[in-house]
Amino acid sequence: MSIRSRLQHRLNPLHVYCRLRCMGVGHSPAKAVSYCYERMLYRLVLA
After folding, report:
1. What tens-digit pLDDT sequence spans the chain (47 residues)?
2. What is the pTM of this model?
3. What count of Cα atoms within 13 Å lies in the side-chain half-sphere of residue 21?
4. What is the largest CA-CA distance in the chain?
């Protein structure tokens, strides 16, 4: 697995959402954070 593939997995918005949920963040805040993250950072960096 390449470094890019690993980063794409780890930085995937769904992965971020799941990690937030595992840390005890509620559904709505985790969804909002992952949505903003996807729109503002993920698409610019890795997509």
Report:
1. 788 888 888 889 999 999 999 999 999 999 999 999 999 988 887 75
2. 0.80
3. 11
4. 33
